[in-house]
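Please review this pair:
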Amino acid sequence: MKTTFLPVILAFLFGCASGFASGCASGSGTDKPFNANNVNNNTNNLNNTNNVLNNVNNTNPADTDGDGVPDDLDVCPGFDDGLDADADGVPNGCDGCPGFDDGLDTDADGRPDGCDACPQDNPDDTDDDGICDSDDLCAGGDDGADDDLDGVPDFCDRCAGANDGLDTDADGVPDFCDRCAGANDGLDTDADGVPDGCDLCPGADDGADGDLDGVPDGCDLCPGADDGADGNGNGIPDGCEDVGPGSYEYTRIPLGGMAAGISVAAHPDNSYFVIAEYTNRLHVYDVATATFSTIDLSPGGSANIYFRDIAFSPAGDYAVITGMSTQTSNHGVAFRFDDAAWRANRPATTGVVAPWALTGVTAVVDYTAVEFGLFAQILLLGHNANSSNRIMYLVSLDPVTGAATYVTARNVGADAVDMTAANNVYGDPGAFIVGGPSGAFTAYYTEVTGTPEFTIGPGNNNIGNSNHTDAHPGGDYALVISSSGDAIYKFEAGMLNGYSDAPRFSTRRLWNVVFQPNGLRALVLGQYQNISGTIFGGVFEYRHGHYSCVTPFTNCEITEVSIPSFGAPPWNATSGTVLQDAAWRSDCDGGLIVGGSTAYSTPYAFIARFQIINGAPCTW
């Protein structure tokens, strides 16, 4: 190949068109003249040709590390690609994790699992304590630091210096740091920082104590004075020993389409009231916005629910509403009003009220009253429908399961209509019960050293029909309204006082009595009255410790504070209107009164705000 290719090149270099004779004769034998430009050009061509020859002769690619793999294909430059002791596809010289598969990296942190201290974590150990994040007892702190040796690292120790594992009441707070031993520290319904089990004043802020007497303002019997100072031991702090008669102001609150109000209760924190109509509907009055939300529980058709009583739990997390329903063969009913659901949804009322099943009790036709705290139970009072054999029932309600259990059942000869928690002669609690109008009775149920005792007509079995009773806070005594005798009786130390000892207001048609939460006053409610053309809604004020009444209306410590001009606007009350119930606020001297007429021929209803002008003002 060299003998044929070289002449061609030489001819090209020296500018010969063809042939190889001396002087590069042309095909015709004629000599060509010398061309210097051709010499220069051909010299350049010679250089290029040398390059071509070199490339043709150099056919092997570069392999710098001599491992038989060309540099441009080398997996591990500088090392032998053929050496891979752990067979993971990564040559030894570039193996990040010798002895393990570099391709396995579960947590995608760039470290092969075989050499990753924490193969499940990325990053491996955020708090640098030598413990992988997935195994870290105390994220963010050193797991090895545990000064109190309770197994809980210091950084996450709930109770430094004590054993976090000791939690007798199982509330998640170690015993040594437990704010309320024996109760759940996590339950603080009124959000005052004091757990419900140790709350001095449920529903109010225990930390608010304006007069520094150790009694929170929301439960202060005598604001501005020391509740603990009671020189004569009558239960009234010395600073409020003689609460003067109140001057009352009444304001009607508009609510269209309402039937007669039958019962009302204030939430313990005073933010709202729940009002029950005579049938089917509940109204929630929001104090801050002065607005109503209505809950209609009508069963439909011709059936009705007839409401009787409302009472909030001491913590205010729910209320019990009692009554009867004509849909369930005249069976007594009880409903739960859920405070949390109301606050979460208001003004909507979805999910706020639900019935309890009351499984276990079937004989009660009507639940007329509810009382919290008696014998560590919720007690319901009810009666049957047999007019010839009238049975009174005390029933215990389980608020969690909705089950009901008979406590006692007695033939009392009349419908049981109300009860209150009043102490027995030993100072222990009991249920004082009244009945009417289908007959009349009073009764007292208590337990002495665990043994039940039931008494008909304790001390006095002839007070006439009675519709309502209420106890002074603490249960040291109760006031009892005789509706047939228009008298105010007193039950104390397990006994009713006598006929001649009870103040009587024969022209006022008394109906109900409701104590103020601090116990300083009670409102005695009456009915529509027309005395010689003067129309009013009967209301009396009882003041704690002021029961003496030598001559009603003139020489009596129980003073009349009736609603004036009850038949005129804005009241326009009709005859037969009853002031059914009242609820005091605990943060001021005021509250609500509800009532109306249940007569189909003259339907009428009202809601009234009341305020003691010379008392602690309410913000409405």
User: Anything to note?
Assistant: The chain is about 5% helix and 30% strand. The chain has three domains: 2-57, 200-242, 243-612.
